[in-house]
Structures are given as C-alpha cells and as structure tokens.
Amino acid sequence: MDTIKYTEIKAESSRIEIHGDNADVIDVARAEVRKVEIVAVAQAEAIAMKEAEEPAAEPEESAAAEKSAAEEEPAAVEEPVTEGETASEEPAKDNGERVIPAVDSDETVHVIGVRFRTAGKVYFFDPGEWEVRHGCHVIVETARGIEYGTVVGLPMDVKASKVTQPLKEVIRVATFEDNEIERRNRAKEKEAYRICQEKIQAHGLDMKLINAEYTFDNSKVLFYFTADGRVDFRDLVKDLASVFRTRIELRQIGVRDETKILGGYGICGRPLCCHTWMSDFIPVSIKMAKEQNLSLNPGKISGVCGRLMCCLKNEADTYEELNRNLPKVGDEVQGNDGLSGQVESVNVLRQTVRILVEVDDEKEFHEYHVKDLTILRRRRRGGNRTRKDNAMDTREAQELEKLENQERQETRGDNKNRGNKNNKPNRNKNRRRQENNNAQ
C-alpha cells in the first residue's frame, strides 16, 4: 500500500506559494498545510508501530493483505499525543463549547464579558487557559461567525442562570495580525458605506443609510438603515452582492438605534448615554416626568432622537419614593405649630413643603418638613384652571402620548406600517357603503 511520507509532505508544503494580500486566504492556506503535516506525521507513526508489532509477511501474503486493505474503508488516524499528555477514553469537547450547569442549579461558571461595539451588549465567554485583562482584545466565535471583541469584564464567577448555553470558549487573544485585520475592516467599512449610498440613489429607494459593518472574517457585510415603512431592497442586495462578493445583510433600525450608532451631545452638554455606556434601551413614560416635576413640553423632555429622554429613568425610582409622603400643590395641610394652610410649593429633594398661612389677619409663607405636617384635605385635580390652560395641557399630553406610543412600538420591534393595516377594512367598508348610497 502506497503511503505518504512525512518528509515528502514537508518538502511539498514548503514549495507552496501564496499570492495576494488577503489575510483570510493566507490564514486558511497555512491552516490547510499544517493539517496535512499533522495527518502525515500520524500516518507515518501508525505505519511504524504496525511494522514493529507484526512480523514480516511473505511476498504473496503481503500482496493479498494489501489487496484486502485497499478494498476496506480506511481507518481513522488519531493525532499523536505530545509529551506531557496522556491518552484518555473520555470524548473530547468540540466547537469550543463547554457544558455549563443547569439553569436551576446554584453552581457558578467562570466567564469574562466581551463587547463587540461601543455601548453594545455584553456577552459571556469561557476564558479557557488564556490570560485576559480588562481592555484587551480577543477572537471569539459567535452566531455571525468569528468576531473581534473587547474584554469589558475581568474573569469572574456568575450564576449558571445568567449564562446562555452553549458557552463558547475564547479562541485566542488578539495578535498583531488580528489588530491589523480589524483596522483594515474599519477602513473598508467607509468604502462600503460610500458604495451602498450610491447604489441606493441609483435604485431610487426611500431609505437612509446609517452605517456599514464588516464581520472579522469578512464572511458578511451588514448595512443599517432607517425608513418610514417597508422597503423592497431585493434588487439592491443582488447589486451589492455582485460588488462585494460576500453575504449581504440589510437591517432596518429605529431612530433610537440610529442615535446610538451615530452619537451626539444631549441638552446637558455631555455625550449621549446610549452611545457611551447604556447597552440596552429602557422604557420611559410620561409619569416619570410628572414625578420629577418637569415641564411636560415635548421639546424639553425629548432627546436627540425625538423620543422621551432615557435619563428620565435614572432617578425615577428615587423621586417616586420621595413623592410618596409629600402632599401635592393645593392640598390643605396643618403644621405641628397648629397653623394650617394650602401648599404653595414642595421641594422633593429636601422633603420640605411651603404653605400659605394666615397669622393676625396677614398671610405669610411658612416652610415645614414633611414629618411635621398633617394632610387635612386633598385638592380636587383640575380645579382653579382656565379653559385655555386645560386645552394646552391636553395638546401637550396628546403629543407626549404619541411619543410614548412610538417608543413602545419600537421597543417591541413593531414598525409603523403594522398599525396602519388595521384601518384598511374600515376604509373599504365605508367605501362600499358610500357606493351603495350613490346607487340608490
């Protein structure tokens, strides 16, 4: 039986020439050469061990054995065991996955937190035997393929319920070559953005391109865009695939995700929270603005994205707890000194109340701590207000309610066209009714 000698394979692999500047192709070619070398070594050692154990056969017997061996299927060749390692009968774990304890168990798992983009979600990975530190870059395997991430959490032990199975293991700590590949990918993203923008204009599509993103292994190019409704971009995808020669994915996002990607500055003068540290969007309601005694003007409590500001949630729980024992403006209260009057203003943080009392036929303002007051009567809401004030509040409330509904729809992943479909049957019914009346 003809066998491939290790020396021949090594000599043949040394003559392989790799042309081009594609780093991915070079890495794949080197990996294939290394795989061939490992198989050749295993075959050579297996043949040497077999010849040492079995006695030399006669020429006729050896020919018959070679003929029968050629008819049989080749046996699997095991890789040689290096020094310091022992052979084990336990099955090896493949795909870099490690089985973690059950979700309902109290056991912990040793993981690290990895983030793939600025202010993105943090995913858990098994550090394995790699020594990682905060801020270093690692190469890991994700659902999108091989990715280049940044370690944002030191190795720690977390409960198994917080880890999603299967737990992937870190492939390696990023090398200088990996950093260069990532740098080239970031440069190619600008060119991809320009090309996609030209293609969108050529096809006349009503969509706004936000960002282009390459995966680390260049297996996919993602384009993020916003649009008022659904967009038929099938021809655009075919055109882009013919240019980039790889998988193309167009993903429609909302205005909050657009602001998160592009970034900017808020009315506070600081960079936007969603672009710097906030990984997930949180639901915000009008009630939070009311609890903090903020103006209900939509222009003052809306962010750069046009939705209610996310920072309203930061102190919502604190204000809700502080307002629990405070009276409202207009309530009738009595202080510990026996004086009573109506509440003119409240200081939520200091927990003080300013009331208007009557002393010796004169009206004065007295300030009390909330612990020194007793609420006598609650003011009827909506009283002592003009029709103009009520109309303005109603208009602002409607605008705020519209913003809140839009935010709720984006949080659930609904698009705007989905809500308009429910009105079509009513319009058709009204149209048929009108046609019947005209016919009569």
What can you tell me about this protein's structure?
This protein is of the alpha+beta class. It folds into five domains: 6-71, no CATH class; 97-174, no CATH class; 181-253, 2-Layer Sandwich (GMP Synthetase, Chain A, domain 3); 262-320 and 385-412, no CATH class; 329-377, SH3 type barrels, CATH 2.30.30.30. The protein has helices spanning 6-14, 23-53, 59-71, 176-203, 234-244, 255-262, 273-276, 286-291, 298-301, 316-322, 387-412, 416-420, 424-439, and strands at residues 97-98, 108-115, 122-125, 137-142, 145-159, 167-168, 172-173, 208-214, 220-226, 247-252, 332-335, 340-347, 352-359, 362-369, 373-377. A five-stranded antiparallel sheet has the order 3-2-5-4-7. Strand 13 and strand 14 form a beta hairpin.
Write the SSE topology.
Blueprint: H1 6-14, H2 23-53, H3 59-71, E1 97-98, E2 108-115, E3 122-125, E4 137-142, E5 145-159, E6 167-168, E7 172-173, H4 176-203, E8 208-214, E9 220-226, H5 234-244, E10 247-252, H6 255-262, H7 273-276, H8 286-291, H9 298-301, H10 316-322, E11 332-335, E12 340-347, E13 352-359, E14 362-369, E15 373-377, H11 387-412, H12 416-420, H13 424-439
